[in-house]
Amino acid sequence: MDSVRAGARANGAGGQPPQLPPLPPFAARPVLAPTAVLAGVLTALSGRYGFHRDELYFLAAGDHPAWGYVDQPPLTPLIARAATEFFGDSLTGLRVASTLAYAAIVLVAAAVARELGCGRRAQLLAALGAALSGQVLAVGQLVATASFDLLAWLVISLLVLRLLRTGDGRWWLAIGAAVGLGLQNKYLVALLVLALLPAMWVTGPRQVLRSRWLPAGAVLALAVAAPNLWWQAAQGWPQLTVATGISGDDGAENRLLFVPQQIVYLSPFFVPVWIAGWLRLWRDPALRWARAFTVAYPLLCVLVLAVGGKAYYALPPLLVLLAAGCEPVVDWLGRGRRAVRRSAVVAAVAVTAAVNAVVTLPVLPPSALSFVNEVNREQGEQIGWPELVATAADGWRRIPAADRSRAVLVAQNYGEAGALARFGPEHGLPEPYSGHMGYADWGPPPESANGPVLLVRQSDAPGIDRHFTGCRQVGRVDNGHGLENEEQHAAVLLCSGTSAPWSALWPELRRFY
């Protein structure tokens, strides 16, 4: 008999397992209604700007299916391809996937609140808190690895809570499957495991760590993740190179902004709620079994700071604390001066919704995005791709028709290459090549392509020019909105050829970050 079940038996009267107190009913109707409305809003807004650079890359990667890529596991490109197959090859069709992930995150947040003994009103508050949080809106608005990573972390947290509450070690199998699937999307889920296991050892109940189902769950996680891990090992673990490079470039800034971003990524108005949740899990004897999350969150913060990761890596456990804090908020609303307190909560929710919508959703005209782009640069990364491709097409037409069969279109980064692949055919452009990230594995051009080279690069990255000969600028990108994003004023250069054969040049063009 599993040691966890045996331990539970030992605590029961007459040798029988103790009866767990029943959970409150799931507030299905109150939670589903606003979730459906907000998902509808995301769908209605999804086509207002344009593709994000990462979305263009995922679509390209989906057209080159593999068990892995140098910078990511295969799940998000696979989801992107499936979304366009099932819902239409359009921006709106693609973003159905992120909208569904958003709705699932909101529902799981309500389920977490229920697991922690929250009633109907607290579950609704938890759902609204998650739904209106800045980071949740951001990853629900566009397809990103973070969209499905946040969902995976929250599902794992829910399953761990169920394990801790019931003491049933068989939940390790579900946890293992969820971790394995999360690893097929993003390796960051390993940080959650590294934070939760020692937190469970420190706070208990330790019986779950002695369960024979724990190693079985670990084996299952590795089995689910094995194809990608095998691919990475066979390629020499390029994702570690990518992660090291990104940390080296951004690590100092990430550490400096970590604490303020922990506050603003959900909402400053939500800080008292998740602090109340932390205190509730730590102090309430009835929730002693859930104390692991009070230790896991700060431990996760230490891990993220140590690796120089982005602040949002630590947000999923914060959503658990937010859900835990909704019951104390409901209790607070029911005491003295109810009208004033309720008005304050409504005002806080309204301000949160308005501010986070402006910062994360395509509600402003592109010409008014300059300030928002300083706060959330992902907004600006959805503007200007058709203009970039049109500028490149003008440059391509400068190549004599007789030389175009030997000419090559090269982009400095995967965003430019993805845009050229997406919008280029309607302008008569060929398939682009790039040495950036996964695009490097889909090249080089054939040696027979020994004619002119049309090069698209950012205005501040002239270093790539040295690999080509006789280059002259024939175009300059203007997104038409005066928005300073990474591709604004990008240069289009027409070069007479390459400085070396493509096979020798390609390793020099490869960039992992």
Describe this structure in words.
It is a single chain. This protein has helices spanning 3-10, 28-45, 53-62, 75-87, 91-115, 120-132, 134-141, 145-166, 171-183, 189-203, 213-234, 238-264, 271-283, 292-307, 315-324, 326-333, 338-360, 370-375, 377-380, 385-396, 414-423, 502-509; strands at residues 408-411, 433-434, 453-457, 468-469, 472-476, 491-495, 497-498. The chain is mainly alpha-helical and 513 residues long. Strands 2-1-3-6-5 form a 5-stranded mixed beta sheet. A two-stranded antiparallel sheet has the order 4-7. Helix 7 packs across helix 8. The two termini are 50 Å apart.
Considering the chains and any ligands shown, give keywords for the structure.
mainly alpha, two-stranded antiparallel sheet, 5% strand, disordered N terminus
**Backbone shape:** globular
SSE string, helices as H and strands as E: HHHHHHHHHHHHHHHHHHHHEHEEEEEEH
What's the rounded overall pLDDT mean? 93
Task: Tally the beta strands.
Answer: 7
How much helix, percentage-wise, in residues? Answer: 55-70%
Number of helical elements: 22
- Spatial ordering of strands, largest sheet: 2-1-3-6-5
Tell me the span between the first and last alpha carbons.
Answer: 50 Å
Q: Biggest β-sheet, characterized?
A: 5 strands, mixed
